[in-house]
Amino acid sequence: MDLIDLRNVSDLTGIDINMVDTNTLAPEMEPNRQLYFMAKSREYVKRKSEELGRNLTVHITTFGCQMNAKDSEKLLGILEKIGYEETDDEKAADFLIMNTCTVRENANQKVYGHLGMYQSRKKKAPHRMIAICGCMMQEPEVIEKLKKSYRFVDLIFGTHNIFKLAELVSLCLEERLEELEAQGREDKKPKHKMVVDVWKDTDQIVEDLPVERKYSFKSGVNIMFGCNNFCSYCIVPYVRGRERSRRPGEIIGEIKNLVEDGVVEVMLLGQNVNSYGKGLDEPLNFAELLEEVEKIEGLERIRFMTSHPKDLSDELIEVMAKSKKICRHLHLPLQSGSSRILKAMNRRYTKEQYLALAEKIKTAIPDISLTTDIIVGFPGETEEDFQETLDVVRKVRFDSAFTFIYSKRTGTPAAAMENQVPEDVVKNRFDRLLKEVQDISAEVCGRDVHTVQTVLVEEVNDHSPELVTGRMSNNTIVHFPGDASLIGKLVDVYLEESKGFYYMGRLNQ
Q1: Is the pLDDT of residue 284 over 90?
Q2: Bridge-partner residues for 196, per DSSP?
C-alpha cells in the first residue's frame, strides 16, 4: 500500500497513521498537521521501545476541574496514537505530564513540589520526558520561574494549544536526538533545550483528534471554552481566554459517536454553559442545544456544568422540566448571600434575584437537586454579610455545597482589595457555615428513602468489594450489593437507608 500524504487528504476517517508519509512536508491545515506529527513521533517511540525491549509509558497527573480532566483525556488519546501506554506507576513512567490548575495559589505550590520529585527521577533515567501544561502555564511569571529554576523540564504549553501536543512532542524528540548525538562528540557538549509554546489567547477549536476516555459508559463533552465573566476573585478568564462555542453539529456528532461506543451519560462542559452560542454563525442558545442532544437515540442521561445564575433563562428551566433525559441536578454557584459582597465579586445578580431564581427552578422541577459553591471571608465581608449567606442557605436548602475559604489570588482584582478578613474570623465563619450546610444536606438528601430510583452503576466499591456504587439522576451516591457486571448499566434500586449524603440499597428485582 502506498504511503499517505496528508496534504492531499480531506477526509480523515479511517486514516492509519502507520501509513502516513513523514518524508513529505507537514500539512498546514489542522487536524491533518497533528496526524502527521503523530506519525513522525511514533517512529521515534517505536525505535526507543525496541531499544528498551518494552513499550514506552506515560503518566498524566491532573489537577483541577472537569475541564482539565477532559483535556487530560485528549492528551492521553494523542499520546497513545504516538505509541505510549498509560501507566499508574508515576515513578517508572517514561513520559510525565502535569496538567495544572491555578484557581488557588496553593495549587501552584503542589506543582513545584511535584517537579522536585520529577527532577530526581529524570536523573535516574535521562531518556524520561517531562511536560507541564494547563492553566498555570498561562501565567508569565510561572514560565519565567520554570525557565530559571526547572531547566530539566522538556515541554511547557498552555490551555489554548493542547491540540498541538503531537507537534510539540515531535519537536522535543528531535531535540532529544540532537542531544544524544552531541554526547558522542568531543567537540560539542549536549545542551538541554526546553520547548515552550504558550498562547495568550485563541479563537481556534480543532476537532477530530483522538481521545482516551476514563470511563466506557460516561463522558464529558466540551461545548465551549473560556469565560467572559471576570468575577473579581477568579483567575480563570485570564488563563482560559474569552468564550468560544463549538459548532452544534460537531457537538451532536461527537455525542452520537460516543453513544455508538457504549456511552449512556454525557456531561456537557463549559465555564458557563448558560452563555453557550455566542459567536456561532448560526445562533443557537444552550436550551436549544439541550433539545437537540435530547433527540439522540441511545443516550440515557444528560448532565451539564457550570451554570452562572445571571444567565439561567426561563427557557432553560422549561426545557429541563419537560426533559426525560436531563438529570435532576443543577449546580448553581451562589458564592455569597450578601448583595453588597456579590457586587464586589462582580457576580451581576443580587441575593433577592438568586432566591427568586432558586424558587422558580424548584417550582418548575420539584424533584431537582440544587448544589452550590460558597466563598467565606471575601475582602470586606462583615458578620452581617455572612448572616445573609446563612439566610440563603436556610431558605434554598441545598442538597450539598462546596464551601471555600477565600484565597487571595495574585492577578485578580480581589487580591488588591482592602479589608482582608482576619484568618481566625474566616475560620470561625467557615466552621459555622459548614455545620449549617451539612445539617440541612443530611435532611434534604434523605427525601427518597424507601423509594425505587434508577441508578447508573459506576464502579465496584473501594472499601466493600461485595458492593457496587452508582449515582441517581440527582447525583446522589448509592451503594448496594452487586458485582462488576453491572458497571455502566442503569438499574432500579430500592433505597433502604439514608446515610445523610448517600444511600444504602438493594436491586429492585
Answers
A1: yes
A2: 156
Whole-angstrom distance, CA of residue 150 vs CA of residue 139:
16
218-222 β-sheet, strand order:
218-222, 265-269, 301-305
CA distance 348 to 308: 10
Q: Residue 15 burial (CB < 10 Å; 0-12/13-18/19+)?
A: middle
Sign of the four-CA dihedral 40, 41, 46, 52? positive
Best CA proximity match to 99, nearest among 67, 126, 125: 67
Residue type, 277: G
SS (H, E, C) 189-258: CCCCCCEEECCCCCCCCCCCCCCCCCCCCEEEEECEECCCCCCCCCCHHHHHCCCEECCHHHHHHHHHHH
Amino acid symbol at 148: K
Q: Indicate the pTM of the whole model.
A: 0.81
What are the residues whose beta carbons fall under 8 Å from the beta carbon of 47, sequence distance 6 or more? none
* Of the ranges 86-90, 157-161, 390-394, 459-463, the best mean pLDDT one: 390-394
**Grid cell of 72 as nine digits:** 487530560
C-alpha span between 327 and 13 (Å, rounded): 33
Residue 98 CA to chain centroid, in angstroms? 14
pLDDT tens digits for range 426-476: 999 999 999 999 999 988 988 999 999 999 999 999 889 999 999 999 999
- Using the structure block, give the residue that is written with the C-alpha cell 485570564: 238
What is the spatial distance between Cα 454 and Cα 328, in angstroms, rounded to a whole number?
12
Q: What's the mean pLDDT when you consider all of the chain?
A: 90
Pinpoint the alpha helices (H) of 62-164: 66-82, 105-124, 140-149
Question: Contact at 8 Å (CB) between 454 and 404?
Answer: no
Residues 76, 60 contacting (CB under 8 angstroms): yes
The answer for 500, left when phi > 0, alpha when psi is -120 to 50, beta otherwise, is left
pLDDT in tens, 120-178: 888 888 888 999 998 889 888 899 999 999 999 999 998 888 888 999 999 888 876 66
The CA-to-CA distance between both ends of the chain, in Å, stands at 55
* Residue 380 pLDDT exceeds 60: yes
* The Cα angle at residue 156 between residues 155 and 160, in degrees rounded to 5: 130
Rounded Cα–Cα distance for residues 126 and 120 (Å): 10
List, in sequence order, every residue forming a beta bridge with 403; answer none if it has no partner: 374
Strands (E), 365-489: 369-376, 400-405, 452-460, 467-472, 477-481
